[in-house]
Design a protein that fits this description.
Elements: H1 3-7, H2 21-46, H3 53-76, E1 90-93, E2 100-104, H4 108-116, H5 122-126, E3 130-134, H6 135-139, H7 144-147, H8 158-163, E4 168-171, H9 182-185, H10 190-199
Parallel strand pairs: 1-3
Antiparallel strand pairs: 1-4, 2-3
Helix pairs in contact: 2-3, 3-4
Length: about 210
């Protein structure tokens, strides 16, 4: 402890950051670098028999934290639609008495594990399908078979279909007539989402 610093302590005043394309880019690069290092550490540690499971758990938790923060800043904070006070790539078209949530269409634990196992690239994990969902519909996802995992990873919206959510859904750009009925979303593939995101200029063609 340095008492000389604490004796005259004043709370630092940090520069306020304004959200813009440059700040989004810096956020993306920061989290991509951190996540890349964590995934490499996890892969190396998982192959080391001397490593305790707790370290692996802490690395998974750290990846979850980085992904959640990236999603919150780059997606939740980056898109707005029709007065709904949240952002996302997909929006439930319904009325709600209890508000909205920012929902991971791919449960976060699945997303992290798919990243670790190489099924997803880092940029794909940073920009997954995120949904502005009513809290009423979210209640249908509470049973563990819907909340913890998506049994059909290539068809992410089938989790909603199987949970009995019967609303219309719209994509952020509002030019996807094939997405206006939930039952049609059952055939919407994960690579359809990433092609959509590439069309927004967010992901490179290599991701």
């Amino acid at each position: 402890m340095d008492a000389s610093i604490l004796r005259d302590w004043t709370t630092p005043a940090y520069q306020r950051v304004k959200r813009n394309s440059e700040e989004n880019l810096q956020t993306h690069l920061f989290f991509a670098c951190k996540i890349k290092a964590l995934v490499a550490d996890y892969t190396q540690s998982a192959n080391d028999r001397a490593v305790y499971p707790q370290k692996l758990r802490l690395i998974r938790d750290s990846i979850d934290f980085c992904l959640r923060r990236a999603h919150g800043y780059l997606i939740d904070g980056g898109f707005k639609k029709n007065g709904i006070p949240k952002g996302g790539f997909y929006f439930e078209h319904t009325t709600t008495k209890h508000g909205w949530i920012f929902e991971h269409l791919i449960p976060l634990s699945d997303l992290r594990d798919q990243l670790i196992m190489g099924a997803l690239e880092i940029d794909e994990a940073i920009y997954p399908p995120m949904v502005v969902l009513s809290k009423e519909s979210n209640q249908r996802l509470r049973p563990r078979e819907f909340s913890a995992h998506n049994p059909e990873p290539l068809f992410p919206f089938r989790r909603y279909v199987n949970a009995g959510i019967a609303s219309d859904f719209f994509r952020f750009d509002e030019v996807a007539p094939d997405l206006t009925r939930l039952e049609r979303l059952a055939s919407y593939r994960l690579d359809d989402h990433y092609n959509f995101v590439r069309g927004l200029g967010i992901l490179s063609s290599n991701s």
